[in-house]
Amino acid sequence: MVQEINIVRKKIRRGMARIAILYPSTYEAALSSLVFHMIYFLGNSFDEVFVERFVLTQGLIDRKLNELRSLDTGSPLRDFPLILASIHYEPDYVNLIRALMGSGIDVLRHKRRHIVLVGGPAPMANPVPLEDIVDAVIVGEVENSLPEILRTWLEYMNDPRGFLEALACKKGFYVPGYNSGAERTWVSSLDNTFYPTRQIQGIGKEPVYGRGFLLEVSRGCPLWCRFCMEGRLFKPFRQRSIFKLTKLISEGTEVNRVNRIIVYSLFFPTKNDHYLLEYLIKENYKASLPSMRIDLISESTLDLVSVLGQRTITVAPENVSDYGEKVLCKCFRGRDFVKDTLSMIIRKNFDLKM
Question: What residue ranges in the chain does DSSP mark as E strands?
Fold first, then answer.
């Protein structure tokens, strides 16, 4: 078993609900998924629940059907009657099927005794491809959805049909065969909701973005680019206050034993983000920053980013023609502005990635 810090340890007792959280990709990818940490720590905040983590081995991804075992106790996936899966991308549908097959669990929902729930951008956007495989799709944000799932499971854990019927009556769940749709739910204030300051840190295994404290500074996007699925699924645009962010950074870097911040945001950098960058520099942190909007980048932004140790700037202009911008609904201030901004990034000695 892999060595880790910040794992949850619980004494398994009679009547405890043991629930699996499956990330259908590699261990390194799971460590870079904020929602994976969120489900693990929020779920384990319930005394009568033990959420255990499952990821795919490279062998399974290479089409060898290996049995999945818990990272926490080594227990096989088939021993968990409730399986929650976080799916970010459609190709991971195949990995979900491989994980079930490799663990001796029927793929088709009407043939198995296990309950499989999935969430994430891909199934939220279109649950139909998974209707014959999963028992329910979570159509909402985890801070609201997970407590509802756990409370309902604790009430109906010996009655799977009753569990699904109860979920179908709640907002935020699409249950094939029980309801015809679901109303999306979201968190109104990021400052006043759960956040996993403790995050799993693998010893000797680097996450996709390197080791650091995962910090979600905002969620959603204020714009309406036609091609952006996440921007539409996670509206309205919300930001954490600079006061909340600095508190999370102070606690998170200490408990995770890191000095590097990995910033998550769909819309970056705003004015609030400039205050954040200044704070990070003042406190001698390093940072990894997300893709930036060209029309929000300034010379002062680049100067701050440089001090934080990042040498690559990622931008996504998509199109610089007037017609293309109108079709995509992603408009800038003209081609000259885009050209000047890209030239400024290069002039500041950054590697430019588009």
Answer: 4-5, 17-23, 49-55, 82-86, 115-119, 136-138, 173-174, 201-202, 213-216, 218-219, 238-239, 260-264, 286-288, 312-314, 351-353
